[in-house]
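Hi R.,

Here's the chain you asked about this morning:
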Amino acid sequence: MNEKKIVAVLLLAMAVLTACGANISSGTRTDAGGSMEAASVSFDRRTDSENEWAIVTGYSPKGETVWTYETAHYSKTQYQMVNEIENRDGTYYFVENGVVKALRVSDGETLWGNGAFSGAMSAYIFDTQGTLYLCGVDGPELFAVDSEGNTVKKISSFTNKHRKPENIRIEGSRAVITYNTGELYVSLLDYSFTDPAATPKPTSTPKPAATPAPTPIPTPVPTHAPRVRMSSVTGVTATSWLSEPQYNLYHTPELVIDNDLTTAWVEGADGNGIWENITLTLDGTYTVNGFSINAGYQKSENLYIKNSAPCGIRVIFSDRSSVDIVLADVYDAQFYSFKTPVETSSVTFMILSVYRGDTYEDTCISEIHLY
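And here is the predicted structure, written out as tokens:
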């Protein structure tokens, strides 16, 4: 067989593996050695003038590096080639160059990779069975992969009316995909879809005016999940964190739950860390009434003033619903109770704006407690 035929056969084999969602690994994993197991994961997306890549790192409860996984380097485009998803039930999910990947948190081993997605992720959500649903910026508009890495469904496009999905949420047996032009309802039973804006509203005969009834007193929404405790937190992940080996300081995500104000999670992105976020993952679904937060570096008042602290934050729950909150610029704990208790399996805190530090750009959070 000549060289041209060999190359053609190899290219065809790669295309078949990608289409079938076979295990694909283009990154490099490094094991720190020893018998330690990781409890938390950080995702550090990096760029230079031409390329982008990411370094995924697993840490022991003491903040020691257990393993690292570095993706390949990809030429920069208008879309991100590497995207973090989340740490869920001991598995860390992310997208690398259109391949959905799953790593075991404890040792960083690749469990599976599904290349059938082949898109740039814009939104995702998990259902209660662990199936992951993703949307691609330019398609596919819906991609479903189960917890074993098998492709469940891939829909490149629903309709010419809507393009570039921005968000996805699950309501019962349907997924709701949000675009800047409206929403689509997609059945998760047969993947048929409806456009609510195109459905005519039924007409009705106006009712005669009646004496207004008194406004009832609102009744709290009942919750069925147990109330959250901090012992329910099984992992803490962040989009980035700051390492200062010259001072033997590693400002890792799990430091926000160590009950120690002398430590803090410090984001490691360029600038003030706008859009950086930290996620507390729970061992099940719990009722969360609110949280307390020590924003900023609260080891001392001097360090608090020198470093940046979050001002506007977005609190995101496992169903992708969210609430935006403005924190005060105070060297103390702050408490926030949600208007309605939330049932969730994770809580993410995203930085939207900051109170700038006098000396450093880094934005810090010393402690977070859910209640």
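One quick note: Residues 1-25, 199-221 have pLDDT under 50 and may be disordered.

Cheers,
M.
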